[in-house]
Amino acid sequence: MRETVSALLTSWQLNRGFYGRLYQTRPYLEAYAAHTDHRVIKDPHAAVGGKWEELGRLQFDHLIAHGLKPDSKLLDLGCGTLRGGRHFIRYLNAGNYTGTDISLRAIDYAHHLAMNEDIATKKPRLLYRRPGEAFFADLDDAQFDFVLAHSVFTHLPAEVIEECLAGVGRVMQPGAAFFFTFRDGAEYRRNGLKDFTHPRRLFADLAERYYFLFEMHDDYKHPRGQTMASLRHR
């Protein structure tokens, strides 16, 4: 029986097969972006992992505890549908929030949410980055005090994480910090279509390679067991 687009968007059984074919026939990042696009159409909150209020507030509170101020400039990598971004935009001075994502549907929804929640007046910069496009290429000479990648590296293989860490230093002000979460494990493992476990030594080694100080934040209480870490310039 021929599968229609509407069926693919409403049936979990069909979605599972459809998503599997995405990852079999496209480069990983293109497949992941298309996967996210479809999930945003169905439920923009669940598409970024759910727990909308809890996880949005958790990441916001963590950066506040580590020095984020209204005049700080924040780059939110993988901002999705603004689960955390809405809190940051509301708190930061106008123009100080930049969010990027490889899901065009997520960025479209983020624009809609900013208007709907009356935070568009804070002039957030919401940017779509094509899958496979170089990290930070769309930011010109922008510099940030904080960079955040929350629930991003959990969906990226090690080579893409290294590409990110190799370039992030150029968008970080002196004294800036890059906070990110990952799923910590003894060894690298791919869990299903789009979830990855990485050993913390991967990040320690990359920090050494790219001249960062690496710090674990084991006190971060992510409800799904992700671990928070940060990098700062040496």
Say how many strands there are. 9
CATH architecture of the largest domain: 3-Layer(aba) Sandwich
Q: Uncertain spans, ≥5 residues at pLDDT below 50?
A: 1-14
The tally of domains stands at 2
Strand content: 15-25%
Main β sheet profile? 7 strands, mixed
Annotated CATH topology of the largest domain: Rossmann fold
The CATH superfamily label of the largest domain reads Vaccinia Virus protein VP39
CATH class type of the largest domain? Alpha Beta
The proportion of residues forming helix, as a percent range, comes to: 25-40%
Overall structural class, as computed from helix and strand content, comes to: alpha/beta
Radius of gyration: 17 Å
Shape: globular
Gap from first CA to last CA: 59 Å
Order of helices and strands: HHHHEHEHEEHEEEHEE
Number of helices: 8
Spatial strand order of the main sheet: 3-2-1-4-5-9-8
The average pLDDT score comes to: 91
